[in-house]
Amino acid sequence: MVADKNKYVYWTKFQKDTSPLLRRFLLAASGLFAIASGLHLLPLLTRQGEVDYLFFAVDLSFSVILFLEYLLKNKVPLIIRVFSLICTTVFISVFSYVRSGLLGSAEISLAFIIVSFYVFLPPIVSLVSSLTISLLPALFGGLIYFSFIRFPDSLGIRNNNPREWIFNSISLILFSVLTGFLIQRLRSKLIKNIVYLKESRSKILKSQKHIDKLAFYDSLTHLPNRHLFDKLIQNRISSGVSESLLLLINLKGLKVINALHGIEFGDQILTLTGCVLKLYTDEKQDILVASLGGDEFIIWIENSTKLKIETAIVNFDLNNNELLTPDRLGHRLQYRVSGLQFPNDATNLDEMIRKLSITMNVAREGHLTKLVWFQAGMELKIEREQKLKNYLEKAVNHSNFKIAYQEKVDITSKETVGLEALARWSLPEFGEVSPEEFIPIITNSDLIVPFGKCIFEKVISHIPRLLDLYGKQIKISINISPIFFLYPNFNEYIIHYLMDHKIDPKNLIFEITEDVFLDEIETIQKIVFELRSKGISVSLDDFGKGYSSLHYMQKIQFDELKIDKSFLDDIACSDRNFLLLESICHLADSLGLKTIAEGIESEEQLLRLKQTTCHVVQGYLYSKPQILFD
């Protein structure tokens, strides 16, 4: 049923497609009739024979009628144009038979109209019409047989023989059947090809739409991507936009969310964030929003001011949506925003995104503000970072780092019970470079593993002298970056190196932050278990600074807990902070962990700390990091 319907639809389209062909037929027929009418006037020029004014009038009339139909184009329905062509041809054929018998051009006219039937009419109709037209000579034969018509002898004996007329009809029938068979076969294939081409064209259009969607829209959020965003901005600029503001939005903590809840949940957050941004910007002609991929979105805003934008950013809250509630995520979804002005700060999208990224790096370093505007001095900071990165590559390759050691002191005995190894680096051009500056550069590059090995091996070379200075029971802490900790065969490398240099693993503590747990926690459990089985202690550093330290303490057995400095800054003046610290110490005791308080800088802090079960401190009050060797 569906196939028949499709066939009918495409037959209708075929008829529509043949309309231009019919117009050409009309023009050709009009021209032939005009020539025929002119031939009837030749005796006037040659002065031989008589002018056939009747045929002249008929041919000229038909030429004019057909030409008018050609000029009217689609204003005359297709069926009327076909019918007029048929009537004209039949009339001429009959007229020719009556005037000239079998000697005229009637048979050619009938053959022409039979072909026209098969071209312009449906198959069954064209066959019936052709067979009917083919019987016209037989009709004249019957009229001759019953003596209703008699042709003059001047036209020949054949014209008065009914058999000749019947043979003429039979030849037309054979011509009609054979022509119909061939044309229908050709037309059937043509219709199939048209159907195939239409379907192929439809598939191509669908594919093109899909390709366009992939090329111009983000597959996750369905927002315009960078390529389309660039085109849209160029159109705005070309239309005369003189000033606008550009914002880059970066979601914080998406890696943590992916680790805790799965990538699919993280994708839901990105999708929902895209929906929220579209909701805020939908039907606003002055605003364009796009996705740069990952956790970044970009917004183009016209006819606004920095003050209005800052107010809008303060009021904008992603956490109002059901999927993004803090209860479900475990913490509030936060974001950073960097911004600049067009064209004052940048004139093309590449330059805009580069400067927005520079500004975003500054925004990441901030703790309070959500929005940071681009300033010229920020580029100098990036240039400095690039220079430092180049110098760091050489420093890692040549082990040009020094190790400073900060003591860990027992509050009661005031004895040094441990040391923390801290990397230090200086350059002739920049002088002493703070670890807070060069460690992030190393972490964000491919240098973190060779740097980790460099520091580890340098500390191992110092351990014999440290044991001589502080005693055999001293323990040396080394900070291990998450990337180095999860490096393939990390444990094998550590154990073999210690064995090769005859260092007792019991003198080592590896301090790791919870960043290391963003990957599979089962893998971390195996690494920590194997390290502890060899005698190496493992400490959870910066406790309370991140998202889910308690969760990790439940899963993994640590030896030591280092309380982050942020918990200790106000314990001397804040009872609330002191109670929190006291609770952490009790928690550590219940889990069998030794607690270390880092960042102790005043006697007031120390007095409060003595009221807890924490008895080991690390801070400027007792010792500053010192370079003992090199």
TrEMBL record:
GO molecular function: cyclic-guanylate-specific phosphodiesterase activity
Cited InterPro entries: Cyclic-di-GMP_PDE-like, EAL_dom, EAL_sf, GGDEF_dom, Nucleotide_cyclase, Rev_trsase/Diguanyl_cyclase
Keywords assigned by UniProt, alphabetized: Membrane, Transmembrane, Transmembrane helix
Ranges for domain EAL: 385-630
UniProt xrefs under SUPFAM superfamilies: EAL domain-like, Nucleotide cyclase
Pfam family, one: GGDEF
Annotated signal sequence range: none
Organism superkingdom: Bacteria
Domain GGDEF: 242-376
Bilayer-crossing regions: 21-41, 53-71, 78-97, 128-149, 165-183
NCBIfam families given in the database record: GGDEF
The protein, known as: GGDEF domain-containing protein
Species of origin: Leptospira bandrabouensis
